[in-house]
Amino acid sequence: MTVKFSTIAIVGTGAMGRGIAQIAAQAGSTVYLLDAQEGAAQKAASAIVAQWDKLVEKGRLDPAQRDVYATHLCPVEALSALKGCDLVVEAIVEKLDVKRQLFKDLEDIVSPEAVLATNTSSLSVTAIGAGLRHPGRFAGFHFFNPVPLMKVVEVVAGFKTEAAVCDRLREYARQMGHSAVLAQDTPGFIVNHAGRGYGTEALRIVGEGVADFATIDRILKDQAGFKLGPFELMDLTALDVSHPVMESIYRQYYDEPRFRPSVITAQRLAAGALGRKTGEGFYRYADGAAAVPDEPAAPAVDTLPPVWVPPRATRRAELLRLVHTLGGQLETGAAPSSQALVVVAPLGFDITTVAAVERLDATRTVGIDMLVDDAATKRRVLATNPATRRDMRDAAHALFARDGKAVSVIRDSGGFVTQRVLATIVNIATDICQQRICTPADLETAVTLGLGYPRGPLAMGDLYGPTNMLEVLFNMQTVYGDPRYRPSPWLRRRGALGLSLRHEEE
Ligand code: NAI
After folding, report:
1. Which fold does the domain 307-410 belong to in CATH?
2. Is 122 a catalytic residue?
3. Which of 29, 119, 124, 154 is catalytic?
């Protein structure tokens, strides 16, 4: 196999440049390294060799192979040394004018056939390449940190980028052991765009006083299988990185409500509570470990009231079986008795709306999130409404915790926690498909590898039901009257027709 680009250059040898240089050298390319800071390229080459040394120590790399790789690295001190390169990847400071100047200078040096690429994560590829004499050979090549471990790269097609250039970059990425996805040049490309739902919706839930950070993290990990809760994730990324990204994507999409950032992160950023790296974020950290508040124990209740479930509950048959299995006494009448605990299971609606519309006694009404199959979840989530009596709340908590499964009790919220976060993620993802920013398959690859979600957002939507996702959003729009819950046309149509969210039209 001959490598797609035999001689390449990396300009800017910081964290990203080094990572890209490492995998390019491993793929067999000769890699020139150049940095504006004197001696930085040489230092980067040494750092990359030190990475290979570590792999040799761990027995994961042959010493002879390391020596061959090392010969592929050529630190240089002047742009003119890049004359013979057939690809230049830029990973310098994130400033439009500085990047544009670099590519202008490069065009005077490399041949007109050489491919020029930027690793920008937040600037427009089209804008960076706009001043070039040959903009067709210019593309985005967006890697993630740390490059050798994050095995996905977005190949970004600017307005004038030739398709053949994207094809070559995709093939080259594969030779480097990465999955390449093709994105149209739009704010956040794929990964940073698709990633907007998780944190912002969790922040809205906190902002409504529905539940605290730790409860929301527990729910999303236990019910939906996320490795990290949204607040744990923001603590890891640090708010000085993630809040500006939230603002930037929101503004670049001309204040699209789906991406609206939160005042919570703005304030915390101002206070310097950035996350792990400052020892204080949504959690406090001591010696690298987060202090996680204990969960409230299930209350002890001597006698449980009988339970009545209305006919329109989600997964009603399963819910009835569950109550029965837990030893609850079910009422079968058309209406609840005056003692009954009423358990509703809405999609998207809050408990208050269900109680009001179905003429239920709100003081005895509690909700349970039945979107996820009970057998498939490690946690049950109950919600009260403002009128729910304490004894009824405690009875519901005690009943659903009887088999030892974790239970969270939250305040009233359209869509509980899992429904609204999943529906938001699925909505943004399907909007990406609707805009044809990338193919559904590339979206799934980009999100699983770039964000580490348990599955792609379209697969998530399919798993929990496209029609359910649509229903959650429709009803949340009614509850909140907020355009951020407006379903994308892609979800609207596939959800209404019961089609897979991965379905593309003929
Ligand atoms: P960094 O600050 O670690 O490294 C940047 C390097 O570029 C420095 O060594 C600096 O001396 C050099 N440099 C600055 N201006 C230069 C110029 N005009 N010519 C030559 N060298 C120059 O930055 P990092 O994190 O490696 O990011 C670089 C680029 O990669 C940015 O565009 C950033 O947006 C993008 N990126 C960063 C990611 C990250 O997680 N850090 C992820 C994906 C993309």
Report:
1. Rossmann fold (3.40.50)
2. no
3. 154
| Residue from 277, 203, 205 nearest 246 by CA | 203
- Contact indicator for 342, 360 with CB cutoff of 8 Å: yes
Would you identify the CATH topology of the domain 193-291? N-(1-d-carboxylethyl)-l-norvaline Dehydrogenase; domain 2 (1.10.1040)
Answer yes or no: CATH 3.40.50.720 is held by domain 7-185: yes
Q: What share of the chain is helix, strand, coil (3-state, %, to 5)?
A: 45, 15, 40
| Residue 142 annotated among the catalytic residues of the structure | yes
Written as one letter, the residue type at 51 is Q
Which among 29, 119, 192, 488 is annotated as catalytic? Answer: 192
Please check the confidence at residue 1 and state whether its pLDDT lies above 80.
no
Instruction: Pull the structure tokens for residue 365.
Output: 């009404």
Active-site residue flag, 338:
no
pTM (2 d.p.): 0.96
Strand partners, 153: 180
User: What CA–CA distance (Å, rounded) separates 248 from 270?
Assistant: 17
Residue ranges, comma separated, of all CATH 1.10.1040.50 domains in the chain are 193-291
Q: Which atom in ligand 1 lies closest to the alpha carbon of residue 37?
A: 11
How far apart CA 18 and CA 118 sit, in angstroms, is 14
Q: Tell me how far the alpha carbon of residue 477 is from its chain's centroid.
A: 23
Calpha distance 240→428 (Å, rounded): 24
Q: According to the model, what pLDDT value does residue 162 have?
A: 98
In the chain, CATH 3.40.50.720 sits at 7-185, 307-410
154 is catalytic: yes
Ligand 1 pocket member 98 (CB < 6 A): yes
Model pLDDT for residues 271-289, shown as the tens digit of each residue: 999 999 999 999 999 998 9
